[in-house]
Specification:
It holds the Pfam family Spore_GerAC_N. The chain has twelve helices and 13 strands. The chain is an alpha/beta fold.
């Protein structure tokens, strides 16, 4: 009798588990998971939006086919665009798993907050989504083919993570962008994505922002790395290449110490900011004669002078863009609150003096002297 009751209970549990598994599968296949979103400036002040979705189609037996779909629409706002795209996709659209959001450069020059505002408001909005600015139209980037058989949004996320590890770009999320836009003493720098070829994408530049607007000025390659190092940002590694008489010397940064200091002229209130950056690392490539003895201290001084020259060029571009990427205004507001309150930082930032002070410490030259 007892055994019969146990058997009945076990059968009931198995049936329940089977039914719940079928129900979960049904819910899963009814969902269209958005993993990438793009926004562009359209015609007649319209907003163009597009999404990449993962669609799961049941093959039976608990197996699924995964499809990567691309949909576009236009409207007066991102809410209207989202509604139109929702009508194109059967089932429930799930945006809480969005990995990347790309804003086209022309729209970004007008401001990035308007298209993002409904996402910030939505309880389903994924604030850990990564934000990028595109060179050209964002829809052309999001509409790109797969990268190494991965859905495009996953591929872009992987490229972004690699560029961040190499200290080429920041890796901003919607959350950090929201807080950064409203910081009056600092400006955002956002990763810039572009088509490298017809079959590849590249993230190797930084868009300099003025508040919530893209200034139209960007830095790329080693300029991006120099800028991030002046911000005190180091990914896993950073590589700087310096011209030399015999070719190129490559220095790999493993440790960073950065400090900013302000000097205020008492008579004129002129502001001078010194950005001291100490880099510790190794020579990983030197196309000079192999086996020649390297004077680390002397070479470090030469590389430091070259880094300072590069940094001066980056600073000119930042001030041209009116982008306080180093957060000098924030430091000024803390150290000189009285002066800060009297200033119109947006207008006066371009006129301050910013001096880079790089010091490169060579700890190793590898297995060669």
């Amino acid at each position: 009798m007892i055994l019969r009751k146990i058997a009945t209970v076990m059968n009931g549990l198995l049936i329940g588990l089977t039914l719940s598994a079928c129900w979960d599968s049904q819910l899963l296949t009814n969902k269209k998971i958005v993993n990438g979103i793009s926004f562009d400036a359209g015609k007649d002040s319209q907003l163009e939006g597009s999404v990449r979705t993962i669609v799961l189609e049941s093959k039976g037996g608990g197996q699924f086919d995964v499809k990567d779909e691309f949909k576009k629409a236009a409207g007066a706002s991102s809410t209207i665009v989202a509604s139109k795209i929702d009508n194109m996709l059967p089932g429930t659209v799930e945006i809480s798993k969005t990995h990347i959001i790309i804003i086209g450069e022309e729209l970004a020059k007008k401001g990035i907050l308007a298209p993002l505002e409904p996402i910030f408001r939505s309880p389903k909005g994924f604030l850990e989504a990564h934000l990028l600015i595109s060179k050209g139209k964002a829809s052309e980037i999001l509409g790109f083919k797969r990268i190494e058989n991965n859905p495009i949004a996953f591929g872009i996320k992987q490229i972004l993570e690699g560029a961040h590890r190499g200290t080429l770009v920041m890796d901003p999320t919607l959350y950090s962008v929201w807080s950064g836009v409203y910081d009056p003493g600092s400006d955002l720098v956002l990763p810039l994505i572009r088509k490298a070829t017809n079959s590849s994408l590249a993230i190797d530049g930084i868009a300099l922002m003025q508040g919530s607007r893209y200034s139209g000025v960007s830095v790329s390659g080693e300029e991006s790395t120099i800028l991030l190092l002046m911000r005190g940002t180091l990914g896993k590694i950073a590589t700087l290449n310096f011209p030399a008489e015999h070719g190129v010397i490559s220095f790999q940064v493993r440790k960073l110490i950065r400090k900013m200091s302000l000097t205020i002229d008492k008579g004129t209130s002129a502001i001078e900011c010194t950005v001291k950056v100490e880099l510790f690392g190794s020579i990983v490539s030197d196309s000079g004669e192999l086996g020649s003895v390297i004077d680390k201290a002397q070479l470090g001084k030469k590389l430091s002078a070259s880094a300072n020259a590069q940094a001066a060029g980056v600073i000119r571009q930042m001030q041209q863009a009116d982008c306080d990427a180093l957060g000098i205004g924030r430091l000024l507001s803390v150290q000189q609150p009285g002066l800060w309150k009297k200033m119109n930082w947006e207008n006066e930032y371009k006129d301050i003096t910013i001096k880079p002070d790089f010091h490169i410490h060579i700890r190793s030259t590898g297995l060669l002297n």
